[in-house]
Structure formats: structure tokens, C-alpha cells
Fold:
Amino acid sequence: MQPIPGEAEEKKAQIEAVIERVQSGDKDAYGLIIRQFERQMYTYCYYILKNHAETEDAVQEIFIRAYLNLHKYSRQVSFSAWLYKVAYHHLINMKKKQGRWVQLVDKCMEEQPVQQITPHDTMIQELLTYLTAEERHILLLKSVEQYSFEEMGEVMGVKSATLRKKYERLRRKLMDRVLEKGEIAHGKIAGSSGVR
Structure:
């Protein structure tokens, strides 16, 4: 579905007006911002964290941090991009704090036998688990939120050319994984002798 011409600009202007109200002291107006962006933030955080409880806490913390730092927001970037930058940095900090725990869990996982993916798991979920947190950030901002590489650079604090290259590598990685899965299911292993 194509957006109605001018609709995006009108929505951006409405958001900017609400931000001005909040910056002028109307604390209740911030609820409008939360309602506008809550679903997007939840989706973004969930794809990174893979845990509903952690995601709910992260989204709440992101909106608190955004509110407390709203005086730092400037119209040079969209509010949405600024909010994603707040979310990105919060999630990176969360991941750093979880680092030691994750290393311990990873070590335990390596020692356990690899489990087969159940038929109920979707290909997309499997591919997302195959990606690093940074790759999931890039994929979500580019493919789901449809940000330009320049906007993504603002959010992640990385040059747009670097993100372009990382995105291409990420696409190749996913395509290789899809092809590899296809070979296992339909190619050499499954169809080699017809009988196993």
C-alpha cells in the first residue's frame, strides 16, 4: 500500500508539534509519543533480545531515557531516527552487561548436542537466530523500518558506506544459509541415493 502524498510530512509535523509541547513542560503529551512509537520499539527490541520480559523492560527504559534526553533532540534527523538511536545504544549497553552471562551460556550450549529445528519454526526465525545482534540491527533498520543508509548511520554512529558493505555481506550470508538449507533438504544429502 502506497502512502498518501504528503501524509508522511503531516505525520512528522504532528510529532514535532507534540515534542515541542513536551519540551515546553506538557508531560502528559509524551503519552502520545509513546503510543505512536511503542509497537515499533517493541518489535525492534524483541528481534534483538528474543525475550518478551526483557523487551518490555527495554522499551520502558528507552522511553524514559528518550524523555530525559529530549532536550538533546534536534530536527536535523527525524524523531523516529533519534529514538532508534536511543534504543540502539540502550540495547548495546544491555548486551555488554549480559556479555559474561552470554559467554557462559554459549560455552554450555557448545557442550550440548545440537538440536534440530522443529518443523514449526519458520525460516525467518531461524535466519534471525543465525545473525549477530549488530546484523539484526542492520537488517531491521533497513528492511523493516526502511531507513536509508544515511539514517542508519545516524542511529548506529557508523558511516553509511560501512553500513552498505555490512548490509551486502549480511544479505550474502543469509542467501548462502538459505542455499545451504536447500541443498540439505533437496540436494546432495536428501537425494543422493534416494534411500537412507
Observations:
- Confidence is low (pLDDT under 50) at residues 185-196.
